[in-house]
Amino acid sequence: MDVQNLSISVGNNPxxxxxxxxxxxxxxxxxVGESGCxxxxxxxxxxxLLEGTQVRLTSGRVIFEGTDILKVSVSERRxxxxxxxxxxxxxxxxxxxxxxxxxxxxxxxxxxxxxVGRTAAMQxxxxxxxxxxxxxxxxxxxxxxHQLSGGMRQRVMIAIALASNPVLLIADEPTTALDxxxxxxxxxxxxxxxxxxxxxxxxxxxxxGVIAQTCHSVAVxxxxxIVEACSTVELFANPLHPYTGGLIVSIPxxxxxxxxxxAIPGRVPTIDERISGCAFHPRCHCAKDNCSTQAxxxxxxxxxxxxxxxxxxASS
Length: 316
What we know:
Layout: E1 2-10, E2 13-22, E3 28-32, H1 39-46, E4 55-64, E5 67-68, H2 74-80, E6 85-88, H3 92-95, H4 102-113, H5 118-131, H6 137-140, H7 150-161, E7 168-172, H8 180-197, E8 200-205, H9 208-214, E9 217-222, E10 225-231, H10 232-237, H11 242-249, E11 298-301, E12 304-307, H12 312-315
Parallel strand pairs: 3-8, 3-9, 6-7, 7-8
Antiparallel strand pairs: 1-2, 1-4, 4-5, 9-10, 10-12, 11-12
Helix pairs in contact: 4-5, 5-7, 7-8
């Protein structure tokens, strides 16, 4: 997939601006940033889930397997979603229908995209639960969502996403609200499934620890823009944007004896706040006078992109 200059607005307020990135088969791209930076909205736009809302795409292309999926008909996109592209949402309890059994919800997905009968679809649903390491899958097919733990529900969401063997999986905060042990299990499962199938994965997270563990490359978003993008190794070894540096130093260190954790001051601006120049300058310790009047251009050094007048290496 190749996303080119994607922009999204609510009314006259731009909320995602000229976002571009690409993802290859068998690779994982991490999109990271605080809540309100536009990560989930970008993924919803890619999946075509903003239609019928006040949110609209104002420009951009999403090239998937050679086709701009923003220009295909609704029926063509519907056939594509779930079969070639799939998404895992943030909170499985609100994504799963509480009044339908797990098996029925997986079977619905299979019947939507594959020419099989209900009996064969139910058998495939059991195989999918087994694939995502849910014990006694035949019995779990009869369970309702509230009868499963958070980790089990997330595994069910992964099973639904994998029902038609997609080549691209978008995982939007797949470990939110899970304890550390279950979080590690879900991440290991996604990595294992990616290796087995060769699919590409877009992992959206606010947790840089998760990103470091799972992703080949990273795009850092702030207020609807990608402010830095490079390989994961390069990002942690040589962050250039002050926002990225702030996120990294905010990661708690379990082995340090500190009284107060590091944090980026201030908050992400709301969509109706007007900020001239660099959007991050009110919170940036590197900011100078021109940061409040001139928006930085995108600068590329080898495979490292960033938007900043005074990158960290120059300000240190």
